[in-house]
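chain below, 427 aa
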Amino acid sequence: MAVVRDLRVLLRFQDFRRLLGVRLLSQGADGVYQVALATYVVFSPEKQTSAGSIASAMAVLLLPYSLIGPFAGVLLDRWRRRQVFLYGNLLRAALACVTAILMLSHVPDWLFYVSALCVTAVNRFVLSGLSAALPRVVDSDRLVMANSLSPTAGTLAATMGGGLAFVVRLVASDSDAAVVLVGAALYLCSALASLRLAPELLGPDQELMPSRLSTALTGTARGLASGVRHLAEPARREAAWALMAMTVMRFCYGALTVMVLMLCRYAWTSGSDDDGLALLGLALGISGAGFFVAAVVTPWVAGRLGPGGWIVACAGAASVLEPALGLPFAAAPMLVAAFVLGLTTQGAKIATDTIVQSSVDDAFRGRIFSVYDVLFNVAFVGAAAVAALILPPDGRSVSLVLTVAVLYAAVAAALARLKARPLAPQP
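prediction:
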């Protein structure tokens, strides 16, 4: 296989192997920690889970990526990246131990969330640093290959970490604190693995460092604002509408995710947390299968309908199938809906990426994708907050299902109308 062959080539670089080891341990720990957090919030027997607590957990997991992400690079260009991996993972190991203690103690929920928020906030710096360090450990001819395989390997490590968390939870009598401590141990291993890299190897070059931090931070903020202004130009109308459509569809997916979590916890099981957890894992796995199918079929379908036409088709299909499958509030049709929504959401995202990449000037592309990332995650967290206000304790909400169907239909109608109008000429 080409992937295996490419990986063998990259593994000949000693420093790449060491950096990859740091990534695998770090992202494996992320998978363990995130599953522990989710199961503690949703499936702990001693807790009466609410949609509000789920929304809080999603905010903890996602907001640092969005709010800190655009500015993380500014600090990473001032700090030695090897030290970021060392001290960042040591800090996360310590904070994860604090999280475990808080899980075992009778403390206010906000204190637990602050601890978890700190762990995920540091994660943004570590992941950005891992990407920024890659050009230092492979030659330019193999950089594209490394950028493709290294994050993919990290995602697989996070998935395996999530699986390890489920195993540890079963062995440790459903102890989420024990799972968190396993994550802390992996963070510690990642910190120790970073010591195999020379402190100056990964940069940044001191002579290229911006002179003042405040200047770099304000420059980043101005850059994001100029990216938004560029997107507002008439020639970028299709890209702007695609981003808005994807934001709404991500909102819909987030609201339905919270609903499924509540249904798994209360409506589809007879009081067994293990059964609810198994159903949730199945739903997420089926939705992931929809993501995979979207990656396979989108190039073919979008080639015939156009990227905008494929978004219209995805939103239109979701507007019809989501209420048809969701309103019975039964497990089997809802699992089918999970597949459909995984396919349509990811299909629309791939098409949106294509539209933005092809419609936006190269000089603004990075900034607009930073804005895209913020919109993508904030929409998911906002959806969780809205669902917390609407959902009843058992998760069955006709009004939420119908509201989401209307939003999908509105996206399809708006983009279909846009496609019927001629675009402004490119400057």
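The chain is about 80% helix and 0% strand. The domain at 2-209 is CATH 1.20.1250.20 (Growth Hormone; Chain: A;).
thats it, cya
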